[in-house]
Amino acid sequence: MTNSLLSKCFDFFQFFKESLLFVPELVLAWWHLTKRIFLALYRYWNTKLLYDKIFFIFLFLQLLFSVLPWFSYQIRFFEMVETIFLGPKLNSVFILLSLLNFFFLGFWKSSWTRIWFFSTEMIAIVFVIWGYLDPKRYFYDFVKPEEVGLGLSFYLFLGSVFLAFVFGYLTFKKEDEVLGRLS
């Protein structure tokens, strides 16, 4: 029995030693893979038109600001005041729409992506306006609306949605002009 336990300990030590020797190779492989991905993205970025680059940036910002908390309120514990930040109840809708727009329109061009983009941007704007008008129903339900402050990320999300909409329109218009000249 001791021989078996000793054998297993030796095998484990051998495995651990060989695993540690493999780490530098693994790091090097990940470095090369990451480098290739970023170089491919850089080459892809250089093929884009200026409006398309700006559009891509605003789609990314829309995704970023949809994840951040939009609201804040303060709670008083005896003499201490603590600020709590929270996102809307429909946060998953905003994140999903922003994520899908970022990937569909940033990396994939198709005839239906334009319809998808404008439809989802309109849906996001409608939900934001409804939430602004009736925050207890769409944004938060356990806090009094007069105690909640709108955060900077809420306004930045609205700005990024608006500017993504504008630059999306300009990008699609420029693509149509370029395709019209080629035809």
Topology diagram in text:
Blueprint: H1 2-46, H2 50-67, E1 71-77, E2 80-86, H3 91-107, H4 111-133, H5 135-138, E3 149-150, H6 152-182
Antiparallel strand pairs: 1-2, 1-3
Summarize the structure.
This protein is mainly α and 183 residues long. It has helices spanning 2-46, 50-67, 91-107, 111-133, 135-138, 152-182; strands at residues 71-77, 80-86, 149-150.
Structural class by SSE content: mainly alpha
H/E element order = HHEEHHHEH
The rounded Rg comes to 25 Å
Classify the helix fraction into a percent range: over 70%
Number of domains: 2
Strand order, biggest sheet?
A: 2-1-3
User: What share of the residues does DSSP label as strand, in percent?
Assistant: 5-15%
Biggest sheet details:
3 strands, antiparallel
- The global form is flat
pLDDT averaged residue by residue: 83
Distance between the termini: 81 Å
State the helix count: 6
Sequence stretches where pLDDT stays below 50 over 5 or more residues: none
Keywords: Membrane, Transmembrane, Transmembrane helix
Kindly describe this structure:
There is one protein chain. This protein has 183 residues and is mainly alpha-helical. It has 2 domains: 47 residues; 133 residues, no CATH class. The chain is built from 6 helices and 3 strands. A 3-stranded antiparallel beta sheet has the order 2-1-3. The longest helix is centred in the N-terminal third of the chain and has 45 residues. The mean pLDDT is 83.
